[in-house]
Structure formats: C-alpha cells, structure tokens
Here is the input.
Amino acid sequence: MKEKRKLSLALQIFIALVLAIIAGLLLGNHAEFAESYIKPFGTIFLNLLKFIVVPIVLFSIMSGIISMQDIRKVGSIGLKTVIYYLCTTAFAITIGLIGGNLFKGLFPVVATTNLTYEAAEATSFMDTLVNIFPSNFIQPMSEANMLQVIVMALLIGFAIILIGDEASMVIRGVNSLNAVFMKCMEMILKLSPIGVFCLLCPVVATNGAAIIGSLAMVLLAAYICYIVHAVVVYSTAVRTMGGMNPAAFFKGMLPAIMFAFSSASSVGTLPINLECTEKMGASREIASFVLPLGATINMDGTAIYQGVCAIFIAACYGINLTFPQMLTIVLTATLASIGTAGVPGAGMVMLAMVLTSVGLPVDGIALVAGVDRIFDMGRTVVNITGDASCTMIVSNLERKKDLKRAQKQNALRNK
Ligand code: ASP
Here is the structure.
C-alpha cells in the first residue's frame, strides 16, 4: 500500500515536470505572466521547504548520533563520508576540465567587451574555516547557516551520548521532535508536484529561446560531463562499494532527481533524498547524518560546472590555460564547491573564486549568467545523487562491519 503511494508521488512529479516544460514553451511569449503569477506558488513551496530544513537537519543528525550510541562509530562514518566526498569532487572537476577542453573548439566566440559582473566579496580560506563555528545559539538556525547547524547538532549529539542515562529525557525529546518534523516534511512533500510545476514553468518560459541560442554548446558540454560523472563514477562506486545494481540505484533516486532538477536546491531536496535512500535500504541513522552533510559540502555537479565554465570563459578571452593552472582549478573548485550553499545560483557566485585563482577575468561570469539556472538544474541533480551514493555505500560498509563483528563474537562464544 505504502509502496503504491510513493510510486505515485514519483509519477506525479514526473507528470508535473513534463507539463511544466510544455506550459513553459507555450508561454514563451508571455514570460512575465509565468514570472508574476506562477513562480510565486513555487516560491511558497520553496519557503516551506526552507522552513522545514533547519529542524530536519538539526534533529535528524542529533537523533542519528544518539542511535549510534558510540562516538567512535560516528567518527568512522564521518571519516568515510568526508573521504568519499573529497575524492568524488576531485573526479568531478577533472571530468569538467577534460570535457571543457574537448569541447573548446566548438565553443562560440562571444563578445567580451562591455561585460560587467559584480563579484561578491571573496572570503579567504581561514575566514571560511572560522565561519563554520557558531558564536551564537540562535543565529545559525535563524540564518539557516547549514554548516553551523551541523556543528551544533554534532556537539549536542556527542554531549547527549557522553551523558548517557541522565539525558534520557532529552533523548526521548529529540527523537520525538525528529518524528514530528519528519511528519511535517511528509505533509509538505505531498505538495511537490505543484511546487515542481510552478518552479519549472517560469524557467522554461524565460529561457526557452536562450537554450537554443549561442550558449547551447557550453550547456551541452556541462550536461555531457554531468552524465558521464554520474554514470561512470557513481555507478562504479555504488556497484563496487555499495553492493548495489546501479540501475536500481538511479531508478530509486528518480523522485529526488526530478525534484532537484526543478528546484535547483540540494538543501530543498534533502527531505525527498532521505525518503529515497531509506526506501533503497540505507539505514536511517546513516542517511540522516551523511545526507545533510552532503547537501552542505558535497557539490560534484557544481565542481563540473566550474571546470567547464572556466575553460569556456578562458576561450572567450583567447586565453589558453596551462597544466599548473588546471591543477589550481582542481584545488580551488574543490574548496569552492565545499563552500557553495545548497540553494539555487550559489555555484555561480563561487565561480568568481575559481576564476580569480588562475587570473581569469571575473567579468566573464556575465557570459554564462543568463542561463545559469539551466546549468544549475543539472548540477543540483549531480550534487544530490552524489550524496545518495555515499549514503548507500557507507550503509553497506557499516552493515558488513557489523556482520563481521557479530560473526567474530559468535565464534568466540562457541570456542
Ligand atoms: N544549486 C546548487 C545546489 O543546490 C548549488 C549551485 O548553485 O551549484 O546544489
């Protein structure tokens, strides 16, 4: 029964997606109508998601840690997660650079005079590090600063484990609040087909013509790299370390993928991603730790986009990037993707950091800014799929470890 309901939600989202593209193309000449009267409903839906995301991250990470009952276990899962995230991001940016170079000859010659792009003030690496740690209890939640919320959840979660029995009331409180917010999330997710339609339709109406325009080649290069990364890296990882058939993985991920594509927000897709991974057999305690972390720091799609766009912008200015410059891009894009927030458009802001690191003109961002949303939809899909693949892998590795431990204990007992 439950199975049927969830399947139909995926189908509903798919239908909404198709309808949004058709309606968007039909409304091509009335883009203002779509922007003024359809988009606001999408914004309401996004607002509801933003509202629920802070408590979900806070309580799901805390209850995940509490259920593991052991700081060492949290540490081992955390380490595996961070290593996987860093490695896949390095792969992603390499694929982006290779793809960008292969397509370079086909990139259009776009006029680079009179370009202006106001880059946001870049923060240094040390500032970024300092900013991870909250200086106030309320602020991280009110500003939805996800990295700081994660630090809060880790700190409080660890304290609860260390206190043990004395914290039993808090444990019950955290677990039941987690259940309450999960229920809220389920209610909000029922609206996702409407949300998807209202978010995507204005994008198609506004960008319809631009897609076919001069930037089609760059978009194509980015999308091919997105697909190659997902098919090669995630499939291999899920099959070898996750013990899972890649086709089953992508099929299980479909609702989250469609949702990420229309909302362009990893953080907004977090609730659906939690549902999808759990349905595919990931343990809840691991999913509720690995996914929020990934939605905040793991952005493979964003890294690919930064690689492709750096090559494209360099080509437009007639600059040939050297090998050491490419290595610098790999490093800065990895850091930039960690610092990218899981919200629409964030990756483009961080592109400025990548360009400056190799002395490319930041104004070049203006070349791709017009169609950023289309890049963004694809990169968000890759971002959340990467998080989910990590969840399935860590779940599988932990399951195997537990099994081994149990077998060892059995053998000892039988001796
Ligand atoms: N929109 C992306 C995400 O939420 C971030 C980006 O702009 O690259 O994952």
Summary: Residues 264-266, 299, 302, 340, 342-347, 376, 379-380, 383 surround aspartic acid (CB under 6 Å).
